[in-house]
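Data's thin. Show one?
=====
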Amino acid sequence: MEKLEWQGDQIIEGIDPLIYLTANKFYETSKIVHHSFIEPKIMNLSFSIELYLKSLNTKTTISKKGSTDVDTPILERKLETTKGHELDLIFNRLKPKDQNNLTSLYLEKYNSNFRQDLFDIKNAFIDYRYSFEKDSLTISLTIIERLADFLKEYIENEMKQSNFSR
């Protein structure tokens, strides 16, 4: 058996596949939730949108944990991404290239303003999680479904183009 040599810490920036896969779980859950269960449907869709956006802008540091002298080093994963649930703020923290790509592709595909649609649902996860505390809530299910579909497709295309092999 070949002994692995530690090559030093690695920093990976860009799409995080684990966040993306978690976003997919919430996205797929939203698809099986009946429309009459509006709060869980909206919460799952909005959380998937949040995670899709967060997956686009990550910095992961892989480092050797402690000072182990074993043949196979124990690795530690430290993830840096945007905190919070406000979708417009998460979007504003993306790299300008991603912001521009998202807005132009969305406009081309749906003839709609990505930033405005995102702004319109920016607090959906928080609002619908605590919907019982609100006097009234209004949201466009069409917009929230469209944004989730679009972001999922966008990230999948980005991963294909970069020959993402994880």
Observations:
- The helical segments are 17-32, 38-56, 87-92, 96-110, 114-120, 124-129, 141-161.
- The chain has a mean pLDDT of 86.
- Residues 46 and 81 are 17 Å apart (CA to CA).
- The first strand starts at residue 10 and ends at 14.
